[in-house]
Specification:
The chain is an alpha+beta fold and 191 residues long. The chain is built from 8 helices and 9 strands. It has 2 domains: 143 residues, 60s Ribosomal Protein L30, Chain: A (2-Layer Sandwich); 35 residues, Wheat Germ Agglutinin (Isolectin 2), domain 1.
């Protein structure tokens, strides 16, 4: 396991600064490694992570775990929460980790001389024990993980728009093979 300071340096390099949410993301990844008994950051694709918000928090998680959107080992489920679920795809064991509801107050208590609350959080989130900073709950993921992972190299074209569909994301409607935007409606409209 990479040391906290090294991971924070890597996360800082992505943003040109370090903030409390990056620290939370890194610490969550480190805690997931401990709870799932995995060597992280990973060099394979054994861990799959669902982050519940984007931004600097997700980059902290990525640095600590080796999970990335581009490697298909991280998924965004945008609930607007600083939380993540980590799934060992070999054992199917999953743990959801979120900040403890008193983490902010504990940070201020630990660093009472901090200039502002933000500085207290930045410093204290690096020091607080996992049990005082984070809540971890073992969960069962209701999504089909094998379908999410799919098979690389599988490609078909949409019968409606003609665009290529990868990763087995096509929809069969009768005799037609469609992309999800043609089958269900897209998040955009043509001008």
């Amino acid at each position: 396991m990479t040391h906290l300071a090294d991971l924070l340096t890597q996360s800082t390099a992505l943003h040109k600064h370090l903030c409390p949410r990056q620290v939370l993301g890194v610490r969550m990844g480190m805690y997931a490694a401990e709870l799932l008994a995995l060597a992280l950051p990973q060099t394979n694709k054994r861990l799959l992570t669902f982050v519940e918000t984007d931004g600097c928090f997700a980059d902290g998680v990525a640095v600590a775990t080796g999970c990335h959107l581009g490697r298909r080992t991280m998924r965004l489920v945008d609930y607007g929460k600083v939380a993540a679920t980590f799934i060992d795809t070999k054992t199917m064991q999953a743990v959801r980790i979120a900040p403890h509801q008193h983490a902010r107050q504990r940070a201020c208590d630990l660093k009472p001389l901090a200039k502002i609350r933000w500085h207290a959080q930045l410093a204290a989130y690096q020091e607080l024990p996992f049990a005082h900073l984070l809540n971890a709950t073992f969960v069962e993921v209701t999504l089909d993980i094998q379908a999410l992972i799919s098979r690389p190299g599988v490609r078909v074209n949409c019968d409606a728009c003609g665009e290529e569909i990868i990763n087995q994301r096509e929809v069969s409607l009768g005799a037609q093979t469609l992309c999800r935007s043609c089958a269900d409606g897209a998040y955009y409209v043509l001008k």
